[in-house]
Amino acid sequence: MSSMKLHKTSDAKRPRLKQRSVEVATEKETAPASRVHSVYRTLWRAIVEQALQPGMKLPEDTIGEQLGVSRTLVREALSRLAIEGLVELKPNRGASVAHPTIEEAREVFDVRCGLERTVVSMLAGRLSAQQLKILDAHVQLEEAAQGRGGAESIRLAGEFHVKLAEMTGNALLQRYILEVSSRCTLVLAIYSRPHSSECAVSEHRQIIAALRVGDANEAARLMEHHLQAVATRALLAPRASKEIADLLAPYAEGEGLRPW
Amino acid sequence: MSSMKLHKTSDAKRPRLKQRSVEVATEKETAPASRVHSVYRTLWRAIVEQALQPGMKLPEDTIGEQLGVSRTLVREALSRLAIEGLVELKPNRGASVAHPTIEEAREVFDVRCGLERTVVSMLAGRLSAQQLKILDAHVQLEEAAQGRGGAESIRLAGEFHVKLAEMTGNALLQRYILEVSSRCTLVLAIYSRPHSSECAVSEHRQIIAALRVGDANEAARLMEHHLQAVATRALLAPRASKEIADLLAPYAEGEGLRPW
DNA sequence: TGGGATTTGTTCGTATGTATT
DNA sequence: GAATACATACGAACAAATCCC
Predict the structure, then answer these.
(1) What part of A 156-215 touches B (C-beta under 8 Å)?
(2) B173, A28: Cβ pair inside 8 Å?
(3) Rounded to whole angstroms, how far apart are CA atoms B203 and B208?
């Protein structure tokens, strides 16, 4: 087991290692509960749930101390998060929580659209009664969360799509959907207004209905419409203020002076 | 470039970190030419071009010596390749070149289909004359390569799709397409028969034609058909033998005995 | 079964590069 | 603009696990 012999500064610095994170049993193949993965997962949650806010610096040392691991493992986790777009990693300047621009957000939404189309076209008419029940229950959760904070609504909305992806049984599709939906969550957390995700619940219901009756085309159309709506609500609403910021950015940072 | 004998504790222990890697200074801005990236790129090419064959073991030490870097960098590169599915990484057992099963290959093809649909629907009617010329030239290259080895044809066919993705300007889409097309290249290298990619050239031509006239639906349809054809040519041909192997696998390894 | 050789997992020191005063 | 302080990039060494007789 984990040896406690490393008592380097063990007085008040109890390493609070997350105990073998409770991996859901849905995945039977690989058990990626290594220590890096634990660090990765912790940081992932902290970012997606906005405990670590966009733009925030992520020093290897501090994180390592906090989590009771060395910089090496933190580094590894950070570089993976960087690949996934949740962390920005500048050479020799370290890591910080990603702060996607509107353009990057638009890109992610565009890709997500195609991926989610694939998901629903694979699922239409092929969901078991139990799977449909799970989806119905999830939407009810979403509905119940509408009164409470927007953060939880955003999280649940993302999880709906991840659940759909899981039901395809396609591991790669799951990974991609998880990735784009995490990034979208980040985007929504930055840009969206409170209550902007309210209508999403009924849209989810419509999608389930189309999947239930097996209308793949309709499901794809609804999904596309849903995502466009989410993107619009998120990115279009604060557009005015953002455009001003974008216009000013080059002057503020001097980057507009380059001839290219 | 097979493994030289590893006399690591030998006299020649001189660390050859003389030269800052030969990266040219062409790009001054975002220089992704870090040393890890160099290792990553080298391994990536070696795998995709089949210098390192599927299933081959990838010991950190040997690779590090060969490339003149320490294990740390090799590890980082390997874990990135593992995320992308080109390398398999088993805990405490090290890395080896991925050897995708038919099922994994099918999954990748399915996801790829959706991504490529997105690509062509973004590009239809929006390509400049110069871009179209680039595509035409590429297809001519493909045609010229038909006589020579199948490996080059496979590589060129993959690059066609990567070029298309680049033209969307969507960085995430580029990354995903690069990833799935690399993995497909691996799959084709394993499973496809010689000359199985011949008809692909004319399919590429048809896609370009649809993009030129701006028929997004037709382009999407052609792309889907094209990918299905590639998948079929690759995965269906050797199906019989593979199914036998798959049927026997549980008995051979005893994994089928688990209740889950 | 066991023990030595080999390989991986992890820590941590040092050099290098970046920000700050 | 130089000196200082600090964070990162990299590598060597140690510890643990696995492989191979």
Answers:
(1) 170-173, 176, 180
(2) no
(3) 9
- In the numeric block, which tokens belong to residue A240? 């005015």
pLDDT category at B152 given cuts 50, 70, 90 is confident
Helix (H) or strand (E) holding B95: strand B94-97
Q: What is the pLDDT of residue B195?
A: 65
pLDDT band at B108 (very low <50, low <70, confident <90, very high): very high
B218 touches chain A (CB under 8 A): no
B88: helix, coil or strand?
A: strand
Residue A259 vs residue B75, higher pLDDT: B75
Q: Identify which of A28, A108, A170 has the shortest CB distance to residue B107.
A: A170
The two three-digit tokens of residue B100, written as one number: 């995708």
Task: Tell me the mean pLDDT in the region B4-26.
Answer: 33
Question: Which residues numbered 79-98 in chain A sit less than 7 A from strand D, measured from CB?
Answer: 91-95
Length B72 CA → C4 C1' (Å)? 26
CB contact under 8 A, A115 and B110: no
Evaluate if residue A238 carries a pLDDT over 50. Answer: no
How many percent of chain B have pLDDT more than 90? 64
Per residue, the 3-state secondary structure of A88-119, as one string, reads EEECCCEEEECCCCHHHHHHHHHHHHHHHHHH
Question: Does residue A190 have a pLDDT over 90?
Answer: no
Cα→Cα distances A6→A9, A67, B186, Å: 8, 14, 44
Phi then psi dihedrals of residue A125, to 5 deg: 80, 0
pLDDT of residue A3: 31
Residue A147 CA to residue B253 CA, distance in Å, equals 52
Q: Provide mean pLDDT across the span B236-258.
A: 45
Query: Which domains are present in chain A?
Result: 35-97 (1.10.10.10), 102-237 (1.20.120.530)
Q: Could you say which nucleotides of strand D lie within 7 A of any protein CB atom?
A: 7-13, 15-19
DSSP annotation string for B73-85: HHHHHHHHHHHTT
pLDDT in tens, A116-167: 999 999 999 999 999 999 999 999 999 999 877 778 888 999 999 999 999 9
pTM over 0.85: no
Structure confidence at residue B77 (pLDDT): 97
